[in-house]
Amino acid sequence: MSVTIEDIRQAAARIKPHIHRTPVLTNESLNQQVGAQVYLKCENFQKVGAFKFRGACNAVFSLTDEEAQRGVVTHSSGNHAQALALAARMRGIPAYIVMPSNAPQVKKNAVAAYGGQITFCEPTLEARESTMESIRLDTGATVVHPYNDERVIAGQGTAALELLEDVPDLDVILAPVGGGGLLSGTSIAATETKRGIRVIAGEPEMADDAFRSMQAGEIIPSVDPKTVADGLLTSLGTLTFPIIRERVEQIVTVSEAGIITAMKYVWERAKIIIEPSAAVPLGVLWEKKIKLNGLRIGVILSGGNVDLEKLPW
Amino acid sequence: MSVTIEDIRQAAARIKPHIHRTPVLTNESLNQQVGAQVYLKCENFQKVGAFKFRGACNAVFSLTDEEAQRGVVTHSSGNHAQALALAARMRGIPAYIVMPSNAPQVKKNAVAAYGGQITFCEPTLEARESTMESIRLDTGATVVHPYNDERVIAGQGTAALELLEDVPDLDVILAPVGGGGLLSGTSIAATETKRGIRVIAGEPEMADDAFRSMQAGEIIPSVDPKTVADGLLTSLGTLTFPIIRERVEQIVTVSEAGIITAMKYVWERAKIIIEPSAAVPLGVLWEKKIKLNGLRIGVILSGGNVDLEKLPW
What we know:
Two copies of one chain form a homodimer. Chain A is an alpha/beta fold. Helices cover 46% and strands 15% of the residues of chain A.
């Protein structure tokens, strides 16, 4: 049973007291640059600096009291780890976070600052999963996967729901795709709310597993991809792929240069900080592989977590 | 005759169709960091990326049709030049901008992009003023000074007016001070709108002419100051000083390190781009030379024009 629009509406009500309702910004220079009316849904202003807080929050607050008291567990070195730690702290329950020992210190610190209980492991997928499983068995904690989880997908869909409340007459919604949690939730929220709306994803050329999976009609995982959009390295999941295949019009790949150009433009003109992954759907507008001229386009800016000491230009 | 609250209200009505009503943002981490409730008035999202557009716009749209058709003229290498060029273009009149020949190319390009007609001169104040005067005599254009102009002061005051509409129960408003256009307009808008509100300015230690002028009771110009807050190099004017002396509680100086720390914190946590000058009043909260704990504090973030290739950290 897949995620429904009703699940997303319930998620929106459930997480409303805990999240930021993020603003939708517009920018005249940007509109002129890309030849369309662009509405930026600013999840870079969300708690923990990324949309990930929505899904984690929905998962944590969906638990029964009995489940909740045993805590939640995940393995992640990214925004999901921080998001789950903060959501768990808000509910007053433990969050067990498995991180590879070579994760950047700044990420370890951030998870710890949100109260996450970190267990380090070898930096392999096998070690991460076996460490997580052993914590789950010890504690009875509920596993919350970063994207292949219906509660997470429903939570991520709430950003598009808000966007369409604020700007109902969009022609297109653009979102980035990594594991597909945001994209699948967005596609359900959009297509069930507004007849005829088009949902299009941007994906880095250098991590184009979703593009290739759509072509092949089956999940083709990416193998050790390298891209500046480090939030989009993961591959589609068994829950997200069927939703995306059914509801997303197409996936458009974006070059590394296109990502960086779009990112820098938004910093310079819109004066907001977005991370490279958030610039990927904007790169679709820059590179013009598909024609979107003159349309009203909502863009989910996925996050704003950037190392200011290492900018990509 | 000084600027009145009525002048500021009229300016607000006059410029309303042309400006952005900028949002007021809050950030929980920032509040915890500084121990106060902080309301950020985001003039970094204003047209041309700075509050300067308000004053320039009010000046341009205050002109009679007869005056307007002869255009406006100023000398500036900064945000005021861009602001005046854009305001003039909106009214469909010429803007003559005198710039020193050594101004950064990016600033020359920006003024030209807004339709300003640039005349280059030697990089001395004398050359700038004499070049401007000769253009004025040739064209009959109206001079619009960056801050020592009542129409400009009234326009700058509209930011505080909006801030107090959105957050009426502020205890304090903090603004930066350079030439004093923003600070004098802010102080009139605030003290005439809300009894007992405190207006406090932040000024770079390295360009502390306003601080020293307040101590001395007369204008003491700064001599070739050097600070990362390059929007605050100018000295108080004959119109702005008396207003500031009457209505501003005190001017607090901020170290270069304090400016940069506050700026980077806002980039990292609030995910918005502010220029060093905008971080100066935040630096007041960081360095805690004066006690503002627990208060509700509005901060005018003056702008967001930063060279992303040359960040100060």
